[in-house]
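WP5 quarterly update. Target: Solute carrier family 26 member 6, like 2. Source organism: Oncorhynchus mykiss. Length: 686 aa.
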Amino acid sequence: MGVEEQRAGKFYVERDVLDELCLDQVARRRTHSTTPPLKERVKDSLRCSMPKLKRSVLSTLPVLSWLPRYSVRDNGLGDLISGISVGIMHLPQGMAYALLASVPPVFGLYTSFYPVLVYCILGTSRHISIGTFAVISIMIGSVTERLAPDSDFTFLNGTNGTAVLDVTARDAYRVQIAASTTVLSGLFQVLLGMVRFGFVVTYLSEPLVRGYTTGAATHVVVSQLKYIFGIHPARFSGPLSQILIDICRHLPETNIGALVVSLVALVVLIVVKELNSCYEKKLPLPIPIELIVIVAATLISYYGNLNSQYDVAVVGEIPRGLKSPSLPDVSLWGTVVGDAFAVAIVGYAINISLGKTFGLKHGYKVDSNQELVALGLSNTVGGFFQCYSVTSSMSRSLIQESTGGRTQVAGVVSSVIVLITVLQLGTLFGELPKAVLSCIVFVNLKGMFKQYLDIPALWKSNTVDLLVWLVTLVCTILLNLDLGLAASIAFSLLTVIFRTQLPRYSILGQVPGTELYLDTDTYEEAKEIPGITIFRSSTTVYYTNAELYLDALQKKSGIDVGKLLTRKKKRDAKQKRKDKKEEKKQRGRVVERERVVKREREWWRERGGEWWRERGRVVEREGESDESKLVQHKQSRRKTRPSYLTFLSVSFHLSHYFLSLLQIFRDYREIDIDIYLAGCQGECLC
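Structure tokens (predicted):
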């Protein structure tokens, strides 16, 4: 069949050119599909066996695959230290992010306990830390504040006529809203995971996710300014400028005590966190500055009477113990269905991206569909215990990994730390200023605001991704978080459509002395092969861009098929008329000669001569020679110098896409240009 040799660094291949039929014979193409029929696959899925049952149980409960083989000697100490470190972080972040969700801080501690235990049983990632997260918290907070605004729980005091806010009733209803939204969000995630819909996150590109989290971080900052300045602005939905304008109006009412507490806490947190970053390799454990600040601020507030003397807002009474489970308010689902779905998608996108990052780093597989189910059940179970939606946290996950955590046993240890706090120590934080919790939120947003550095990087690498990033950021800031996400996804999908409609087209030329073919517009040394034009498209040809493809082909090759076809038709019509006239003249001459021969025959027949036969044959041969000359002239006129046009990277997936291809073939064949396809898929051959 062929010869393959390697000479002096060059690879030489010699083989016969095969058409489709020969290729099928040589490669022995199968006449039947190797995939079992649908009926057999359904039967196989319903068939039960012990190995299949074991695989199903292990895939549904991943904890059973690693817990029996857990080595206390190898992993115990690292998981213990990691769990304690993460548990210490859960305490301040849980209470701080509860303010973002507009629920009492103790519910942030509940959220750091129940869902973590569920994920330890069902999750496939060994290093991520499930719990409260700023973006998800602000999304829940936008729902609770919209459905339970302060105005609905304000009434006039009958004694002095002043407005009084029923904080207890408001907080109870907001917790109910948050729990109902969380349960519905979890059910969405479980259902999507059961139908193997984990790939849905692929529609959220990295620029979209990073732009969305940056915009959400802006909402987080604005929502916490009221605690930093100790003011009470009205609630707005829509453009962020309205909220900022209202905050500026209330700045003259700033509480000096709250502002001083905020500034001191911010300075201490920023300085110590920077020290943790600088001496990360030298410190065995990062300094738990958040917990230290909370303890110190609680002591100062308690002994300094900051609430009573300076009107600094504090957390208030924290109930001891855990809440009993209760059913969510199903009547709210119709109102929060859009918000719940947005929370489900964003939470899963953050969780799976972080989980796969650690999975690739440490060499294990993270099942996207099982992660969807695990996160959904974490939210569903947590919602029954008055928790709000959770996802993985970058800061806690990095601490869990860097301090030696190797399995989700670290998550169990962190849950024990949270449980001890809720049962015994929670009541001690009643005098904690809310401004300190807001400062903790501010400092933990540093990583999200560093994402603004994506702008110059994307400007250099990909302007379309930069456009997606900026549009997502603007939509998230100007619209609500759910509408901003929907608008961003729609715009991102439009960019995909536009990319297929406006691909990169190029004419390839050969680099002298090599077998490389590069774009002639980009590389000066790339020269076209005489008589052959190689045209390449960066995308597939299908019905929506076939006409654009043909236009680009004409433009790049310099061949206007329409004009050439028109000229050819005119030339052919003119030549046809000329040929008919010439043919008519030739036939007239033949007829005239036949008449002369006929007269001569008659004359010589009378004389009995034999010469007329020879003369007649000569005349007939002369007539036939004239006609054959005409045919040869017509055939020679059709012979033109052929040109070759080669397509590269063409792929088709449906039969009706061939219509566009066949039209291109017909048009170019009419102007005597042969077309060849290269890099085609099997279903493209014909």
